[in-house]
Automatic annotation (TrEMBL):
Pathway: Lipid metabolism; butanoate metabolism. Belongs to the acetyl-CoA hydrolase/transferase family. Residues 278-434 form the Acetyl-CoA hydrolase/transferase C-terminal domain. Its EC number is 2.8.3.-. Coenzyme A-transferase that converts butyrate to butyryl-CoA. GO terms for biological process: acetate metabolic process; acetyl-CoA metabolic process; butyrate metabolic process. This is Probable butyrate:acetyl-CoA coenzyme A-transferase. CoA binds at G219, I220, G221, G222, M223, L319, G342.
Amino acid sequence: MSYADEYRSKLTSPEDAVKIVKNGDWVELGTAMGHSYALDKALANRKDELKDIKIRSTLSLKEHEIWKQDPNGETFTFNSWYFGGTDRKNHDKGLVNCIPMLFRNEPLLYRKCLYNEVDVAMIRVTSMNKHGYFNFHCAVAATAAQCEMAKKIIVEVNPKLPWAMGGSEECIHISKVDFIVEAESPVETLAPAIPTEVEKKIAQFVVDEIVDGSCIQLGIGGMPNTVGTLLAESDLKDLGCQTEMMVDAYYHLYMAGKLTNKFKGIDKGKSTYTFSMGSPFLYEWIDNNPGLAAYASNYINNPYNIAMNDNMVSINNCLEVDLFGQVSSESSGTRQISGTGGQLDFATGAFMSRGGKSILCCRSSYIDKQGVLQSRIIPTLSTGSIVTVPRSQTHIIVTEYGKADLAGRSTWERTERLISIAHPDKRDELIKEAETMNIWRKTNKRV
């Protein structure tokens, strides 16, 4: 049978495809742009005839029909490895649960721990090529591992998606697929945020830490993208890319002639990543581009692979830093905001790299709902806040007031350095707290 004949034999409607889901099943939706539309709706429409359906997902970019059809979570229990904005909103409604993970471990978790708990994978893919392969496009991450463990696989084909060259684990062959559904759907974009003056100040401090030939990882959020934009406008040259998320900034670096990957210690000459979100021009750049390589997260986020690149610099956002150097980037108290993702992976790998640096950025303060100035550098993390980067792994913290290198420093040295980059109106208060906590030397600098 030819691949075209096999394709036709497996082609079906969304409604018929989701009939394979039965009571008690675990269903995989994939990552971000890998989430289906037609299959999501067809499964949601079965709400009244199914019971106890457990969903796993990563980083939702849309409101799933499952949530709309089942607003009280009577049939579907939704679980997420990493929250996007819609996940966070629905978590606050009690409809989404967090699955803790390090991003590098997600494929391993399926193969080692969840191998008997994946009943159906519903994944959005590109059109099939002449060799019988579908591509996971902007959502490679752990998708191959999910499909490998799944008892049944349904792919939803969208011809508008870009083909991401690999790498590894970026494709699935038709012989592995049980059902095929055709459905054009939106190719989600992520509009670049307009940086504030504070973010520009922070970004400039970060750029000053980067040298020619550095390999750059940019995390999720406006701040890392702002850094990338400044890099494109800088005099730096021969930069490299190994990152979990491919974003617009890398395209701008490439177009400015800064992104050559000339000095990478692994995948020399190629920009490597595991998933992508950005503007339409980013997807056009990714499509069938041999200068880019998509890999599973266990490769891209492996600290040993990261460390093979000299002068590796990881740049990520955080929410709070306490005076011990503990960093929370994923929750505000007990409220889940995002997830650990790959922040600890890259904080570890970048620090291991020869000449490498792990940089975590945050504004020094914010105004709360009562209009009161609050510090993001605090004595101890808020009750219930998750430690994303432990104090033993924290390297450089940056605010609009400067940089604090914490690596190898004692508690009193960390305290002094962190208070020096806190908001000036909060420094005396932080010193008093540090004195109470016995981590402030009498000879410390008054900042």
